[in-house]
Amino acid sequence: xxxxxxxxxxxxxxxxxxxxxxxxxxxxxxxxxxxxxxxxxxxxxxxxxxxxxxxxxxxxxxxxxxxxxxxxxxxxxxxxxxxxxxxxxxxxxxxxxxxxxxxxxxxxxxxxxxxxxxxxxxxxxxxxxxxxxxxxxxxxxxxxxxxxxxxxxxxxxxxxxxxxxxxxxxxxxxxxxxxxxxxxxxxxxxxxxxxxxxxxxxxxxxxxxxxxxxxxxxxxxxxxxxxxxxxxxxxxxxxxxxxxxxxxxxxxxxxxxxxxxxxxxxxxxxxxxxxxxxxxxxxxxxxxxxxxxxxxxxxxxxxxx
Length: 305
Ligand SMILES: [Zn+2]
Known about the structure:
Number of domains: 1
Bound molecules: zinc ion
Radius of gyration: 21 Å
Largest sheet: 7 strands, mixed
CATH architecture: 4-Layer Sandwich
Number of strands: 13
Strand order of the largest sheet: 2-3-4-5-6-7-8
Strand content: 15-25%
Shape: elongated
CATH topology: Metallo-beta-lactamase, Chain A
Number of helices: 8
Helix content: 25-40%
């Protein structure tokens, strides 16, 4: 594990009771579309606007900001001035959860006081795609601890998930995990085109049972619990198994569209006909990457050189 340090000796604080009671209070919290900074635990805040969230950790030695926001909305410059006026500390670290522009834009406003941190795979995307963000000076492969003002913020890479560089941001002493575009719950992904589905299944299980997680800040929507990972995993397991079973039975993609309706998930999960169609298309494509479909005559489906 890599480690970067602020200063100060570690402080042991009695968080547990406060965290449990705050988790109960916060789970009922509705975050509207207005810009806001919402305190969750002693040092950890959710910040966000327009239904999209980032995380803020405030310590006596400075702040850690996880993620920017959409381009051109001014949300991140607003966050910077709020941190200055409310807390009077500089932002020392900017964590980039993944390379998607809508989550990291305008983080360059922190260049005067902060260094950016992200996964090793993030950097080539930022450069090639010309993303607008604070470019990381520190990257890591598996995990990295930021120690600042007596608070430990752990960055965790669980392998390729949604993009090849998505990380989780954990403050274990306060039981908070920031899991953008990973804690989906009943809000299904539009498709699986930038997802490693099999690794996602493993990682959702890992996150669903990770210790020291009392509350989960998703990338979009209100505060979640850890069960959220397992709820989404149930959908992902089911659609993967159903599409695969039909492929094994030599059914075409057109036939599979008519057969995989996910009826048992509708109502509870947020499934539109368009997103289900894209889910089936991209799951079929994902599964086809490593297996040859059966054909009725036992002949190759496509000529192989
Ligand atoms: Zn994303």
